[in-house]
Amino acid sequence: MDYLVIFLGLMVVLFAVGVPIAVSIGLTCLAVVVIDGGLGALRPELFALQMMRGLNSFPILAIPFFILAASLMNVGSVNARIFDFANALVGFIRGGLGHVNVMASMIFAGMSATAVADVAGIGQLELKAMKERGYPKRFAVGITGAASIISPIIPPSVAMVVYGWLSETSIAALFVAGLIPGIILGLTLMTTCFIVSFWIDLPRSPRPRLMELARLFWRALPPLLTPLIIVGGIWSGIFTPTEAGAIACVYALFLGVVVFRDVGVKELIEVLARTVRFTSIILFIIAIATFYGWLLVRLRIPQELAMMLTSLDVGVTTILFAIALFFLIIGCFMSVVEAVLIFTPIFMLTIQLLGIDPVFFGVLMVLTLSVGVITPPFGNVLFVLTEIAGMPFERVVEAVAPFLIPILCVIVLLILVPDLVTFLPDAMS
Question: Is residue 247 domain-resident?
Answer without folding.
Answer: yes
